[in-house]
Design brief:
Blueprint lengths: L13 H11 L24 H9 L14 H12 L4 H4 L3 E7 H17 L4 E6 L4 H9 L2 E6 L1 E2 L4 E2 L1 H10 L5 E5 L12 H14 L2 E6 L9 H4 L1 H9 L4 E6 L11 E7 L3 H18 L6 H10 L2 H31 L7 H5 L11 H9 L8 H9 L1
Parallel strand pairs: 2-3, 2-6, 6-7, 7-8
Antiparallel strand pairs: 1-9, 4-5, 8-9
Helix pairs in contact: 2-12, 2-13, 3-12, 5-6, 5-11, 7-8, 8-10
Bound molecules: pyridoxal-5'-phosphate (PLP).
Pyridoxal-5'-phosphate binds next to helix 5.
InterPro entries: Aminotransferase_I/II_large, Asp_trans, NHTrfase_class1_PyrdxlP-BS, PyrdxlP-dep_Trfase, PyrdxlP-dep_Trfase_major, PyrdxlP-dep_Trfase_small
Catalytic activity: L-aspartate + 2-oxoglutarate = oxaloacetate + L-glutamate
Pfam family, one: Aminotran_1_2
Length: about 375
């Protein structure tokens, strides 16, 4: 027998399979309700004008290796972007940073450091539901992963009681993977008041918050507002934390794989030590990260005009997403589709749990409505 006869076929990734089905579908009226990638009014990918401007600025860059921890200007500017310019963690140099292979690479690297620092017996808590990759990223490292109820299907809202109870009951040293904003897939986030309360519990219970920050700026159109939870936990509540930032969605740099992991520690010496670990783990895995995407982000953040343009681009994207939600909601109400569709306009970000039963979802995916004059009508016919 060959060396690989005992290898079992690993299940295919549901989200990427759905994208494959979508691409293969020849219907003119198809709508991609799967993978979270922003499209413009014509259904096309959008290269942000700020990114276009940055690409012109870095046109003559060479192709040498970056340092192991990544492009220094990118790390510096992106860290200040996420944590704010004047927060104590940044000014007291208690922040470790490392460029990563987008948000996923940041989560994996953060998990590897935490596995060493907090020990293999600590539990990683993830929300139910959550982004489909969370469980397997942390299980692959060796962690025990526990999910808890985050979303109340009956109301279409956050189950804040369950969230608080789980925080209260978790053992000290437990890791909580929190979506910094625009929770995927529920679109429900704690309010600022609820975040404050969670930070208080996390502090008294000695929990470790890990923020998955894939949608900063693209959620409300206001970067600072979207970074509230992170900055509150780190700057106001003074907690140690890990932050896994992606520039896939908010700069439209999906395929460039540009992200950042930050660890906020109690002392500057601990940050230096953690950063050395990040460098060692990066050297082992990828030696050093790719340059192009990091150069783009640094060029945007380092130039006042391009940065102002980016902030405008963020509000264009978040505004269009909100408008699409409103149009769908209005049409469902106008056509008297049975059901309560408020959640479509209440939930934030790229995702929404419609609460449709599975058979309806499968119909929505496969039924061809060639004669429909618009994709909304196709959806409405299935909703009703
Ligand atoms: N975290 C969440 C919640 C996401 O929705 C995504 C992408 O969809 C990611 C992380 C990671 O994305 P990427 O690795 O492309 O930055």
């Amino acid at each position: 027998a060959g060396f690989f006869e005992h290898v079992a076929f690993a299940p295919l990734d549901a989200i990427f399979e759905l994208t494959k089905d979508y691409n293969a579908d020849t219907s003119e009226h198809k709508v991609n309700l799967g993978q979270g990638t922003y499209k413009d009014g014509n259904g096309e990918p959008w290269v942000l004008p700020a990114v276009q401007g940055a690409k012109e600025k870095i046109r003559d860059a060479n192709h040498e290796y970056l340092p192991i921890l990544g492009l220094p200007s990118f790390r510096h500017l992106a860290t200040k972007l996420v944590l704010g310019d004047s927060g104590p963690a940044v000014t007291e140099q208690r922040v470790a940073s490392c460029q990563t292979l987008s948000g996923t690479g940041a989560l994996h690297l953060a998990g590897l450091v935490l596995y060493e620092a907090l020990g293999p017996s600590c539990t990683v808590y993830i929300t139910e539901p959550t982004w489909s990759n969370h469980r397997q990223v942390f299980e692959a490292i060796g962690f025990y992963v526990q999910s808890y109820r985050y979303y109340d299907e009956a109301t279409g809202k956050l189950d804040v009681a369950s969230l608080e109870q789980t925080f209260e009951a978790a053992a000290p040293g437990s890791i909580f993977v929190m979506h910094a904003c625009a929770h995927n897939p529920s679109g429900c986030d704690p309010t600022q008041e609820q975040w404050r309360r969670l930070a208080t519990i996390a502090k008294s219970r000695k929990l470790f918050p890990l923020f998955d920050a894939a949608y900063l700026g693209i959620t409300s159109g206001d970067y600072d507002a979207d970074a509230f939870a992170i900055r509150h936990f780190v700057n106001e509540a003074g907690l140690e934390a890990a932050i896994c930032t992606s520039f896939a969605k908010n700069m439209g740099l999906y395929g460039e794989r540009v992200g950042l992991v930050n660890f906020i520690t109690q002392t500057s010496a601990a940050a230096t030590a953690v950063e050395s670990k990040l460098a060692q783990l990066t050297r082992v895995e990828i030696s050093n990260p790719p340059a192009f995407g990091a150069r783009i982000v640094a060029a945007v953040l380092g130039d006042a005009e391009l940065c102002a343009e980016w902030f405008r681009n963020l509000s264009t994207m978040s505004g269009r997403i909100a408008e699409m939600r409103q149009q769908l909601y209005d049409a469902l109400v106008r056509l008297k589709a049975p059901g309560d569709w408020e959640r479509i306009i209440q939930q934030k970000g790229m995702f929404c749990i419609l609460g449709l039963p599975l058979d309806r979802v499968l119909q929505l995916k496969s039924k061809r409505l060639e004669l429909s004059p618009s994709p909304w009508i196709s959806i409405l016919i299935l909703f009703t």
